[in-house]
Amino acid sequence: MTNEEIRDYLNDNGYPEYFVQSGGPGLISRWKEFVVEVEQGYRRGLENYRNDLDLRGVIALVGLEGEVHESDARFQAMLTGCDRRVWESGGGDPFWDFGYPRNASGYLLKDLQAEGLIEN
């Protein structure tokens, strides 16, 4: 997809204006920021975590996967419990929908426990 087509897709699907305006580069930038957050200890809850997984699904949908290989590898290295699906960000079984950060704590840990995705 062209960046204009990506922006149209984001707009048509109700993404915030700052994502629409930044298009593909914004999606890539946010995914990279998310991976750093996970490495440092993701501090927000499961709903936010799932929203960030949705971004990765959009990256795949619009054909920008080649731009995030390094970040994907870093993110995948942080995951544990990969036999459990924590979200469904799109079709198929993409790796990012399975497992959770091994350093999960705070709100994310509490939410994962509350949904029965990990034991207390």
How do the strands and helices of this protein lay out in sequence?
Blueprint: H1 3-12, H2 17-40, H3 46-61, H4 69-78, E1 79-85, E2 98-101, H5 106-114
Antiparallel strand pairs: 1-2
Helix pairs in contact: 1-2, 2-3, 2-4
Q: What proportion strand?
A: 5-15%
Query: Radius of gyration in whole Å, from Cα?
Result: 14 Å
The spatial strand order of the largest sheet comes to: 1-2
Q: Could you name the ranges where pLDDT drops below 50 across 5 or more consecutive residues?
A: none
Average pLDDT, rounded to a whole number, is 95
Give, in order, the helices and strands: HHHHEEH
Report on the structure:
- The mean pLDDT is 95.
- Helix 2 packs across helix 4 (69-78).
- Strands 1-2 form a two-stranded antiparallel ribbon.
- Helices cover 57% and strands 9% of the residues.
- It is elongated, with a radius of gyration of 14 Å.
- It has 120 residues and is mainly α.
Summarize this, please?
The protein is mainly alpha-helical. It has five helices and two strands; from the N terminus they run ααααββα.
